[in-house]
Amino acid sequence: MNEEERALWEGRWKDRVELKLPPAAWLVAQEDRLPKACPPISGRALDWAGGDGRHALWLAELGWQVTLADIAPTALSAARERAEVRGLCIETVPIDLSCSSPPGGPWDLILCFHYLDRGIARCALELLTPGGLLIWVHQTRRNLERHDRPPEHFLLEEGELARLLPPLEVVHLEEGWGEEGRHEARAIARAPIPDSSV
Fold first, then answer.
1. pTM beyond 0.85, yes or no
2. How many Cβ atoms are within 10 Å of 109's Cβ, its own excluded?
3. Below-50 pLDDT ranges, the chain
4. Residue 13: which region, alpha, beta or left (left: phi > 0; alpha: psi -120 to 50)?
5. pLDDT digits (tens, 9 = 90+) for 11-52
6. Strands 90-94 and 128-139
7. Which residues have CB under 8 Å from 167's CB, separation 6+?
8. Which of 37, 95, 117, 180 to pair with 5, CA 20 to 30 A apart?
């Protein structure tokens, strides 16, 4: 991402942080599918390009140890402030994920909402613990029927997400209009667990 694109993205977050959106309803509905960690050790989660932390904070409230990675300083600052107000602890990492490797794992959960990186499943394979989950939600081209953003080159083709998930095991996959009015592909995929009998 060049400096002009970074400035544009930062400007968008300056306009958005006051919205204080709750976590996506679809994600909240998946709570029972999240890995269960054994207390007192909490699971480790990476919110990949997680913006102002609306999902990172929700995970932290569930007891996850969360790292939020994003390029926008304004978004990360807002996430830290909200975490402090709510008595939560999250780590924030300023990073351009389009040209830098994500924070190293191992992670029990990687969450990626509305950030297009077609190589994320292959990367997640290296970063996830055995049996760890990738939750990936992104808009498809059909979203342009109702919205002019994101533009076409930042959208998935309909049906494309299924082809991008291997070598992870697909746990759940769907496409459709969501409660927030976007047409999205939504997937939960699991890192393989080595066969102990070999």
1. yes
2. 23
3. 40, 198
4. alpha
5. 666 666 666 789 999 999 999 998 765 554 579 999 999 999
6. unpaired
7. 121, 122, 125, 192
8. 180
